[in-house]
Each structure stands twice: as structure tokens, then as C-alpha cells.
């Protein structure tokens, strides 16, 4: 499935603060920790705990979130399907970055070892 322009716009305008609690719930429900979630977010974006909390408090959109991020050089190694979309086929850079994060959270919740998640 290829994301539509409307889908890409919706992803850009969605706030990180609105999705973050779902990430926490998802990983904790599967026996992982908030600290592990932060480790994954740090790896992908370069943000520390203080910056993550500031972005939540500021209710930034994913557009702003990823504009401030320094994406890990190995992020492009994140492949597979998330929410029906093959990551490697997404041509919108922002939508792809959001799906990278979704995929990492999914892998964490599925019990993958951190060394594998962080490529």
C-alpha cells in the first residue's frame, strides 16, 4: 500500500504527544520498559530524555519532531511492513521517518533483542 497525500499530511500534523502514551502502553503491555522505549527513540532521533519530554510538553507535530531530529545513519536499514505499509516503498521522507519509529516500537513490543532493534 502506498500512502496518499492526505495520509502524509495527517502524519505531519499528528503530535508526538498524542502518540507517545500509546507507545508506552504498547511496550509495557508486552513486558518492556519506558526506558527501553526511550533508548529506541534516542537511537533513531538523537534526543535525550529531557528533549523527549520537552517535545511532549510542547505538543510538537511529527513534522517538527523529525525536523529537529538527527536521524541515525543506519535508520535506512529499518525495513518491513508496519500498519500495512512497506517502509522501503514509502516515498514521503516524513511519513517514512514516522514509520521507522513505529517499526522500532513494534519490534520492541514483540520482544526483539535491543541489539537487533538498534541495528
Automatic annotation (TrEMBL):
Source superkingdom: Bacteria
InterPro entries according to UniProt: SP1917_dom_sf (IPR023204), UCP033199 (IPR014580)
UniProt protein name: DUF2200 domain-containing protein
Organism, scientific name: Belliella buryatensis
Lineage of producing organism: Bacteria, Pseudomonadati, Bacteroidota, Cytophagia, Cytophagales
Amino acid at each position: 500500500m502506498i500512502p496518499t497525500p492526505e495520509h502524509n499530511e495527517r502524519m505531519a500534523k499528528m503530535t508526538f504527544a498524542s502518540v507517545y502514551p500509546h507507545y508506552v502502553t504498547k511496550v509495557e503491555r508486552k513486558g518492556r520498559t519506558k526506558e527501553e522505549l526511550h533508548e529506541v527513540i534516542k537511537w533513531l532521533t538523537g534526543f535525550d530524555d529531557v528533549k523527549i519530554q520537552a517535545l511532549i510538553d510542547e505538543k510538537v507535530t511529527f513534522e517538527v519532531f523529525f525536523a529537529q531530529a538527527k536521524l541515525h545513519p543506519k535508520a535506512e536499514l529499518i525495513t518491513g511492513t508496519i500498519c500495512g505499509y512497506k517502509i522501503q516503498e514509502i516515498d514521503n521522507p516524513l511519513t517514512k521517518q514516522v514509520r521507522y519509529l513505529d517499526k522500532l516500537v513494534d519490534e520492541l513490543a514483540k520482544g526483539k533483542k535491543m541489539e537487533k532493534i538498534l541495528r
